[in-house]
Design a protein that fits this description.
mainly alpha; Mitochondrial carrier fold; repeat; transport; 15 helices; 419 residues; globular
Length: 419
């Protein structure tokens, strides 16, 4: 992965294995691809003897990607040299660091919108403006950032896990599909694997075959991270609507008196209070809605993001890699589309969790029915679309250049050490 690496290198199948083969071909004299391995390309490659890698060979290795079945064969786990291990570690470390830092910034930027969205889902306001004005009047500017601590931590971890799990699942599902349907059936037009003449002539068919892989990989990643993120989301919601619940309990007090006398718990204290009163399982209130939202949402998220980038490349006269504008637009679209489709489920999750919070521990109550066509299920949709578009445009716009910069810096340090 050179200085020109992008998020494609995280999400294309199976990149870690492909990088191993590239490095092994550079460090092992006389490595020759097998005849079967060359069946996936339309040209014949003459085997050559390579020399030990230098900085220039490492940085330009992306220009000679390996065939499909060589990448699959690397899954058997060939041994790493010290140099290859360092490259692998740098890739893993820089991916995690880029995702974490980008998530911190994008979550903070979009949190006020999320706060307004949650309040409108859980309580009735005349409009978005009414919700904003009431919050500003009764809680001040800090009210819009109430509970921001938990999601900044959880979202950063969830993003990193989501990208990593998605990449691994995508590699696995691609291998399975090709073993069932035939080698080269699923290819990634944006990936480093050379395409045959037929594949180059039918980019639309390649994309259609790859979409189910994107979808299933996203579903697996989203379902897994739901188990981790649900407690954080429930705590965040509790903190966001804490003042609204307390005000309903002290309806006889004017807002000015209530604001002076009531002291909010904060994120950590809210989590402790939930565990103290409802046990650890209380943190998973509304989990079924949370699971469906995250699993389907992540499926749509990655499917739209991958497809948007590939479509831009397909219709580009030069078929160049996506630039900053395409990355930002693709990020915004994947967030907006997935959130708009699943917004009623998210609303139902907020209502179910609010019902738990407003009742005594152990109190039995009848669960609400899910009403897809009820207008109430779409309260806050507008502000939510703005929020998710802004958050994901910010995330990918930061992630891509930051990852490139960190990888370039790692390569420079490696070259200095080897010199």
């Amino acid at each position: 992965m050179g200085a020109g690496a992008t998020v494609d290198e995280l999400t294309n199948p199976p990149l870690r294995s492909q990088q191993r083969i590239k490095d092994q071909q550079q460090t092992s004299p006389g490595v020759t691809p097998s005849p079967a391995s060359m069946a996936t390309t339309s040209t014949t490659t003459t085997p050559t003897t390579t020399t030990p890698p230098t900085q220039s060979t490492i940085s330009t290795s992306t220009s000679t990607p390996p065939p499909n079945n060589l990448a699959v064969a690397a899954l058997d786990g060939a041994p790493f040299t010290e140099s290859q291990s360092r490259i692998e570690f740098n890739r893993e470390y820089n991916t995690a660091l880029s995702a974490a830092l980008s998530s911190l910034v994008s979550t903070f930027v979009g949190f006020p919108f999320d706060s307004v969205k949650t309040r409108m889902q859980a309580y009735k306001f005349k409009s978005v403006l009414d919700c904003v004005m009431v919050t500003k009047k009764t809680e001040g500017i800090s009210g819009f950032f109430r509970g921001v601590g938990a999601p900044m931590i959880s979202v950063s971890i969830v993003r990193t896990l989501s990208f990593s799990i998605y990449a691994q699942c995508k590699a696995t599902y691609t291998t399975i599909a090709n073993s069932v349907m035939g080698a080269g059936y699923v290819v990634d037009p944006a990936g480093p694997i050379p395409l045959t003449e037929d594949q180059l002539a039918h980019p639309g068919k390649n994309l259609l075959r790859a979409i189910p892989t994107y979808f299933m990989s996203g579903f697996t990643a989203g379902g897994f991270i739901a188990m981790f993120s649900c407690p954080f989301e429930f705590t965040k919601l509790s903190t966001q609507i804490e003042m609204l619940m307390a005000r309903a309990s002290y309806a006889n007090l004017p807002d000015s008196e209530f604001t002076k006398t009531y002291v909010p718990k904060g994120t950590l204290e809210s989590a402790k209070d939930i565990v103290r009163r409802r046990g650890i399982t209380g943190l998973y209130s509304g989990f079924r809605y949370h699971f469906v939202r995250d699993a389907l949402g992540t499926s749509l998220y990655f499917s739209v993001y991958e497809s948007s980038k590939q479509l831009s490349r397909m219709y580009s006269p030069t078929q160049a890699d996506p630039g900053p504008l395409v990355i930002a637009i693709s990020g915004g679209l994947c967030g907006i589309f997935s959130w708009a489709v699943l917004f009623p489920i998210d609303t139902m999750k907020s209502i179910a969790q609010r019902d738990v919070l407003t009742r005594r521990p152990g109190e039995v109550f009848k669960p609400r029915k899910f009403q897809l066509l009820n207008p109430r299920m779409y309260r806050g949709l507008g502000v939510s679309v703005v929020r998710t578009g802004l958050v994901n445009m910010t995330f990918f716009s930061i992630y891509e250049p930051l990852f490139k910069h960190l990888m370039a810096s790692s390569e420079r340090k490696a070259a200095t050490l080897e010199a």
